Amino acid sequence: MFSSSSADVLGDIVATVLPTMPPRTARLFAALRSLRPVHAAPCLAAAVGCALLYTGAESARLGRWANPLLVHAHSQAQPVFRVDPETSIEFPATLPLATPSPPLTLVGLGVRKVSFLKIKVYSAGFYLQEGATRCLHHIPGWATFTAQHLLAPPSPSPAGETAPQLSGEALMANLLDQRIACAVRIVPNRNTDFGHLRDAFTRALIGRQKLERAKGTLSEADEARISEAIQTLKTFFPAQTVHRGKSVTLLRPPEGGIVVEFEGAILGKLNDPWIGKHLILTYFADSGAVSDKLKEDVAKGLEGFASNKQGAWGQ
Question: Looking at the structure, do residues 172 and 55 belong to the same domain, yes or no?
Fold first, then answer.
């Protein structure tokens, strides 16, 4: 004979699996629980066996081979984050995007500081297409990459995979010349507005346009196209506040150009390849990089990926 406490335990088990049952079966079990323990216990003992069989079958049908008493437990893998130690801002290991894109993996992160007071304006994370992180050694100039190569002064571009090692910004420029996706996720450490971000991006692009002009690499047609594209980019940013902890993402798709996203919404898309490439390169400039911390952390992350040589480029 079952004791009153045993019946209570069995009743609790049934209560756990009750929500998973069809309505008619659930009503029957509820009625059994209303009986006196001495009468209900034998019925509940048999019923629990049926209940476990039912939930086990449901688990198999749904592909959840887990404890049937935990059918309602949250079984999905939790997101993995890295935290910027200077701002406590979290960055997901895989970047969620509104724009269709290959999976992007977090490579490194760091804080941007401004003025002599070193005010922490925002944290930024750099993401790279998952396939590229596995095959960096197949990209010209990256065969023997170490973190110091990205942090060192620039060197001439190689003609092929066996040519002298690239360094500095030229390394990232060569990486961005491949058909790969990458992104910079920006999360303010204090309330700001889109106007500040827009103006910072605009100044950076105009400055880089001026440098390219001095090198003689831009034609008049290039100059006109880039200037028009910069004006278009400025229209993507609404007149509103960006609160601390909210994210703005600059996505460079595999085909080039730039997509600006804010909290899962697409603010605008620009197809100009020069804008996409050089906006990302502002974070890896040989001098005046947006965040030295970001650049250093990305260099370490890329070294880790480059040393883990798997597969071939394009897989």
Answer: no
